[in-house]
C-alpha cells in the first residue's frame, strides 16, 4: 500500500480510538465514533460547531485545516487549554486525542465561555486570516479562479496581459489530486525557484463534480499542460520531452549533470547541465488556455492551415493569426543594421498595427525589395496591404508531407507538420482502436502516461501490460486544443491530445487588460498613472477589454462604466447609511 494511504489509515484509526474514549465523557455513546460520517456529526455537536462544517470537512485543500481546528476545539472542551496543549492538539491531534482520552482525570467541561473576554489583536487577526483562507480556497477550488494570460497563443482572442476569471463550475470542478498544499500557490513556493508548494504523501484519485455542461467544439478552455507531467527545474518554460528529443536523450531522470544545448552564439553551441528533473501530479501542472477545436470521437485534420472536423471545413476564428511573407519596396517595418548585424524594428508602426515585436522579422533582402515574416490577424493584413510601399502579402504554408520533428507524434513515419496535420481520430472513452507498429505512435502517450499502462513493442508485436494485443480501448475522453495564433502556438499539434482529467475550467470574464512592454515597446512602456489619461492606442490599458464577458466568438462589449456606476452607488449607499446611524447615536 502507498505510504500516503498507510498514514491516512493510521491517523484515522488513532482519531477514532480517541473519539471512542471521549464521546462517553460528553454524554454520547462510544460506538458512534466507529460510524463513518456520523462520527463527524457527533464530534461537531460535542465541540458546539455548526452542522454545515461537515461540508468544509469534505472539501479538499482545507479539510485538513478544518480537522486541525476541530482537534484544537476538542482539546479545549475537555479542559486542555494551556498554550502548549492547544498547540499540540492543533499540530498532532490524531495522537493527542487518544493520549488524553485514556487519561482518568480527563473531563468534559464544554466550550470555553469567551463572550466576556475581549479578544486579543492576535486572535482577531488569526480568525480573520483563517476565515479568509477557508473562504478563498473554497471559491478558488470549486467556483472561480483568477488567471493571467502569459503567452500569445490565443492572440487576439485572449491577449497577453488579460486578467480573467475562470469558471470551475462550467465543466465541473475537479477534486484536487494533492490537497495538502500551500494556499493560493500553484506548484512552487513563493520566493523560490523549485521548492514544491505541495506534499505528495497523500493523494486523491481523479474525481469531477457535476458541472453546467461539457467541453464543446470551439470552447476556450483552461487545462493542465499534459507535457508538464515531467519538468526540468532549470528549464521550466520548456517541454522536457522536447529537450530530450532535441538532445538525443531517451530520459534525463537522475542525470542532473547531463549537458544540453541551451543557446548558440556566433556559430558556437552553448551547453549547460539539465539539473533536477521532477514529476508533477495533474493538478500541479502548468495552466494553459487554448481553443478546443476537436472533441472525443472527432476526426481532425489540418489542410494548408485550414481545420477540418469530420471532413467538414471549420470556420477560422475571427481573430486568428497566421504568418505572412510581406514584400515591401524599401525598409518599412524595420531596418537591418549592417554594422551591428541585427534587426532594428519600426516600433511606432508595429505598435500602430498592434504587431508584436517578437513575432516578426526580416526574412530576405534583395536590392531595395525587403521580405518580412510577420504574424498578424486577417484584419491587420488588410491594413498592411493598403500601405503604399507594400508589394505583396502571402500566407506562409508548410507543404503537406514536409516532416517537422517537433510536431506530434514526432515520428518520420507520420510526416505531419504545423499546417498539414492528420487525419487523426481523437480518442474517446470506451471506443476501441486497432493498433499497429505505425499508428501506435499516435496513442503511445495516451496508453502509458495518461491511462497508466505498460507498453512494449517486440518486432511487429505490441504488448500492453505484458499481454500481446492488436487493439486498445480508451478509458477517458480526450480533446485537441489549438491556439488562435495558429502558427505561433505550442498546442496539441506539438504535444498531443488533452485528457479529460486535465480540464480545469472555462474563461468567463476579463476584468483588466494591460499591454506587455516587451511586445508593445511604445504604448506598453507608458507609465501606469499616465495611462489612465490615454486611450487604448497610446496607453498601456486596453480599456475596451476591461469588464468583458468571454464567449467562443471573443469578448463582449466593455461594462467598465456600468461597474463604476455600481461601485459609486454602493459606496454612496453605505456612506449615507453610516451617516444616519451616527446621527441616531448622537441623539
Which key phrases capture this entry?
587 residues; single chain; nine-stranded antiparallel beta sheet; 13 helices; Alpha-Beta Plaits; alpha+beta
Overview of this protein structure:
- The chain has 587 residues and is α+β, with helices and mostly antiparallel strands.
- It is built from 13 helices and 28 strands.
- Strands 1, 2, 3, 8, 24, 25, 26, 27 and 28 form a 9-stranded antiparallel β-sheet that branches. A 4-stranded antiparallel β-sheet has the order 11-10-9-18, with no helix packed on it. A 4-stranded antiparallel β-sheet has the order 15-16-12-17.
**Proportion of β residues?**
15-25%
Overall structural class, as computed from helix and strand content, comes to alpha+beta
Q: How many helices?
A: 13
| Model regions low in confidence, pLDDT < 50 over at least 5 residues | none
Shape, principal axes of CA atoms: globular
Tell me the distance between the termini: 71 Å
Rg calculated over all Cα atoms: 29 Å
Strand count, sense and closure of the main sheet? Answer: 9 strands, antiparallel
Q: How confident is the prediction overall: mean pLDDT?
A: 88
Task: Please count the beta strands (DSSP E, at least 2 residues each).
Answer: 28
How helix-rich are the residues, as a percent range?
A: 25-40%
